[in-house]
Amino acid sequence: MPIAGAAANRQAARARTVQLLSRYGTVLAAIVIFLGFALATGRFVSAANISNILVQISVLMVISSGLTVAVASGEFDLSVGQVAGLAGVLTAGLMVWSHMPVAIAIILPMLAGIGLGIVNGLMVTRLRIPSLIATLAMGPIALGLNYAYDGGDSIYASFPDSFYTIATGRLFGVVPVPIVIAAAIAAVFYVLLNQSRLGRAIVATGANIQAARLSGISVNRCRLIALTLSAFGAAMGGIMLTARLGTGQPGAGEPYLLDSLTAVFLGMTAFKPGRATVQGTIVGVVIIGMLDNGLNLLGAPFYLQNEVRGVVMIAAVSLAVLRGEIRFF
Amino acid sequence: MAATRPGAGGAARLAARGIAKSFGATRAVDAVDLDLCAGEILGLVGANGAGKSTLVKIVCGAVMPDAGRLAVDGREIVLHDVADAQAAGIAVAHQQVAIIPCLTGAENIMLGREPRRGGLIDAPALRRAAQALATRFGVAIDLARECSELTLGERKILDILKAIVHDPAVLILDEPTASLSLAETRLLFAFLDDLKQRGLAILFITHHLNEVFAHCDRVAVMKDGGKVFDGAVGAATPAEIVRLMVGRAIDDVDWVSHARPGEIALALHDAEIARLRVPALEVRRGEVVGLAGVLGAGQTELLERLAGFRHAARAARVQLPGLDRLPADVAEAIGAGIYLVADDRVRKALFPGLDVEENLTSGALAQISRGPFVRSRLAVAEARRVIERLRVRCSGPRQEVMHLSGGNQQKVAIGRWLLRMARGAPDRPPLLLLDNPTEGVDVGAKAEIYALIRDFARQGAAILIASAEFAELIALCDRVYCIAHGRLASCLPRQDLTEDRLLLEVA
């Protein structure tokens, strides 16, 4: 009996270890990456560089937070990159060409993003096109609109000073504004998914749409709102990107599709395995940001960053799929 | 009723000795011996969770046993996967028909082993090969037609034909009649008799005892992982087999009707829901009414429609709690106090990946929220109350629901509505719609769920319950409606409820 008890204890301890690893393995990986770069180059851990990393990832954080909501509802949004690009160019054009006040030049592109998100949502809920396809098609549509607006050229001009605040300003003279915006957006989406009624319904829809329907949850409303929020996050990120770059470039948003998907998938391996969560996505975004920055500091050839991105994406997804946490189709 | 050695056919083509398999602490199959002889049909019966499907999975190579030996035609075999079993001469036709509708019959039969010439499919050779097989087994289905034009019964026969292309020694049929009409079932059995004459050993898994007694030569009964009977069908009566399956006579000493005469909760007259015709259906408050029918007879669609799910339906007269028509959507039905516990809980009633609390509160989001925000502490408190009340065995509200046992998962599926009722429901007693509420649930949890259902009835709830397990309907119901030939027909009062009678009525 005591022997059996000890064996059971050992088994339980092992189960706990496995569970801890599956929950915090990705966080552990982030820490290992941090320590690795810190040992490799002293410049990595300097306060200036860490602040730099956080500023660099703020755009990705905003876009990925929105995408997290879409994935939590069980839908993909492959249009986030182009929607971000469109919003970024719109905000530049409205200020430079239409001489609109900064506030209007920020709000209108946001509304445009929301509009495209609603179209995504309607395609998925009314036309019953799988989101993978609907949003894949929305990408080139947004890019086309973008070219139509600016003739395919970048918008080079100096913007009003107040616009640069969202890229280079400092709250209380200390905390960079983009970090504040990213943190605020992440917090809002975190509360939405975890503490709001709508968020619960969105997560339930993503977990089992059939059961959600039979529970009286209005699943189409949830999916529409989730895709709209995703496009909103993308538009917001695009505006911040224009402020950081100082120009409106039609193609600037594109790389953010793969990065934000990678961040969300990485996040799905952390904390609540198999679920898209904002806290998980933050870990994913931080990992991507550290890899980019660290490889730069080490003077790695430029193409290595692309390779690493792809490999990290595959690693994240295969980890999750192998452990049965994500099922595709 | 001693377990006799088989003597029906000839030599044993399949011999299994001491087969055992455990999953964690559960002994799914416990030292089972099974012989299958040439020219016989052996019926394998047992309650849900008795170990039938695990045994079948072992024999067809999908699951490795912990112990035991298998031999085909006296040659010992070790199966690592399904392909091994096929090579050893064991063919399986699964419950789900694996026929692709957009291909012809011939193409389906030869799928994956098409004759080729110069790297391309040799279509004439393919047709000849398929036709030769069909002719050999006396199948008269036109193999040039697309399978989408065939009836379910014809597709089933093609599916079996496809399984026996390899000329196997043993054929395993997993609930082959589950979705067939009576005429189609007869056609299938004529075919099986033919196969039997040709020396094939057939293992037939079914829930329908009448089929066992009409068509099988021998019957084996499993209970709790062990084989409790194995003998010629003549050696036992259906009632004896049922007692062996369940392990005890159905105990109904404490059964009392709580029906409140006159207080109609549900009435449906002259209705048609999906493909099921419903001349009349009535449930009173406090009453437990059953729906007996073979799987897929339309009972699921009926319950789902009553719960507001949109299936095609028309009805001359409807009476529901607070409604005089069928509900427009699920939210309206729930608001009126009509709650459905869907069948197939993993697909339709639970949220895999979410925890127990999130599952329990999924039907009452508005009730546990203030404004747009969920009151987290209230949600956890309510979840704990349901966990305690239903004795859900879990580590707490934060445990993931898929880590619970089947019985506890089912309690969560029912508990969702308990929580909803506790947090604001209409004043009138609810209408509970239960679809196969103890599917894949162990005996202990089953008894608890039965007690819970009776308790609901005692408090005045009207309960309509569909079950593929007739023993369950007999244990619970005041009355049972039987579904036959796409029609909700005879209604049997409690005193007439016997397993035999129900089997007869649901033909």
How would you describe this structure to a colleague?
The complex is a heterodimer of chains A (329) and B (507). Chain A is built from 13 helices and four strands. Chain A has 329 residues and is mainly α. A two-stranded antiparallel ribbon of chain A has the order 1-4. Chain A has a two-stranded antiparallel ribbon with strand order 2-3. In chain A, strand 2 and strand 3 (175-176) form a beta hairpin. Chain A starts with a helix and ends in a 7-residue tail after the last helix. Chain B starts with 11 loop residues before the first strand and ends with a helix. In chain B, strand 4 (67-72) and strand 5 form a beta hairpin. Chain B is globular and about 70 Å long. Chain B has 17 helices and 23 strands. Mean pLDDT of chain B is 85; it is low at 1-9. A six-stranded mixed sheet of chain B has the order 6-9-10-3-11-12, with helices on both faces. In chain B, strands 17-20-21-15-22-23 form a six-stranded mixed sheet, sandwiched between helices. Chain B has a four-stranded antiparallel sheet with strand order 2-1-4-5, with helices on one face. Chain B is 32% helix and 26% strand. Chains A and B meet through helix 8 and helix 9 of A and helix 10 and strand 19 of B.
